[in-house]
Each structure stands twice: as C-alpha cells, then as structure tokens.
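Prompt: I keep going back and forth on a fold encoding question. Comparing notes only helps if you start from a blank page. Show me how you would write down a chain together with its backbone fold. Please set it down just below, with no commentary around it:
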Amino acid sequence: MNPIVENIKVIKNRMSNASLQAGREPNDIKLLLATKTVSAQNIRVALQDGETLIGENKVQELKDKFDSLKDIPHQSHFIGHLQTNKIKDVIQFADCIQSLDRIELADKLQKRLALEDKTIDAFIQVNTSFEESKFGVTPETALGFAQQLIHYDRIKIKGLMTIGIFSAEENQVRKCFRLLRNLQDQMLQKHIPVKELSMGMSNDLETAIEEGATIIRVGTAIFGKRINADSYYWNEKK
C-alpha cells in the first residue's frame, strides 16, 4: 500500500474513533488535505484513493497544480491569507475561500465576482488564539463582520475557520475550538448559515471533533514533512 494511502487510513480511523467517542456520526466530518508544497503527483494518489477535498495556502500553487488535477473530481479550498491582488486568480482556481477576514477583501471579491458573473463559497477566519502572528477577525468583531457579509450576494458564507493555538496544553487548544463553536451558535441564532467549522489538524483533531469540527485539515501527517515549517505558511504577516 502506498504510504500516502496508509497515512490517510490512519487519520480517518482517528477521526472515526473521535467522532464515535463524541457521539457524532463519522460521515459528518470531512478530511481536507492540506497540500502546500505537495506535488500534483502525490495529491493525485490521495484523490485516486477517494479523497475529494484539498486546501492550498498559496495562490501560485493553486494555479500550478490546477491542470494536472482537473481530470479528477475534487474541490479546492484556499486556506492561506489572501491578498487582494490575487483575487482574480483565486476565484478562477478555487471552489471556496476559507480565509475571509476583512471587509476590504469582501468588497473586492464581490466586485470581481460580479464582473465575472460568478459566486464563491467562503468561510470567515477567526483568530481564536488572540496571537498577533495569526490572521483572522477577532472573536469580538466576528458576529458584526458576518452580519455585514450577508449583503454580499456573490459570497456564499458556509462556515467558520480557525487555527488553534499550538500548545501541549490541551485545555488551551480546546478554548480556541470552543470559542469558534460558540460564535457559530450565535450566528446561527441570527440566521447566518455558518454550518461548517473548519478547525483541527493532526495534533489536535480529537479535541476539534469533540468541540464540533466538520472539517479537519491535515497535511504533514499524510504527505510527510515539508522543507518549511507550518509557521512559514500560517503566520505570514509581513
């Protein structure tokens, strides 16, 4: 068996066990393959094994791999920080943007989508760890931001996304995920359709599932270690 396929099986078993432990249906939780720096050839192995959801952090990688993978049914999510000058490309190659975090970005997305007569799915990124190095709206402003986005008819809000604090203290990680779940509850009460929660990676997926995650993002535990650390991709404030 291919190592990538073996690793997917291990992760999915963990997800299934965590779901059952939390009294949830395993099929309600999706695996997103975090494919930053992963070759199209290795992504293809995972897609041919039945996976359907990939996530890229860099618009250039999204573009570069598009032609090599377009013959296999799948969805591509953009999960990195999106600069406004990359909007034209991202709406051409991504099915969903998981990192919507400011009105300026929403404004320019709306205008470009209208120009091309398109819509796109999106998640609001929330900085639940309160770390300055991370992007995302603050928890205090998340509800107001979501209420503004209701008026953007080209942007279809599907859920919330967060990156939990990287900590060996499980209770600190859980606080991040529980905060996102509480924000989801508040928004659903206001009829904002944030049904998805994208949170949790290989080191904390069990906690994320206990707290309501519907999408788990896993990269290195499936494809192997990358040349650059996660911080190179996630914490790219410059």
Summary: The beta strands are 30-34, 53-56, 75-78, 96-100, 120-125, 155-161, 196-198, 215-218.
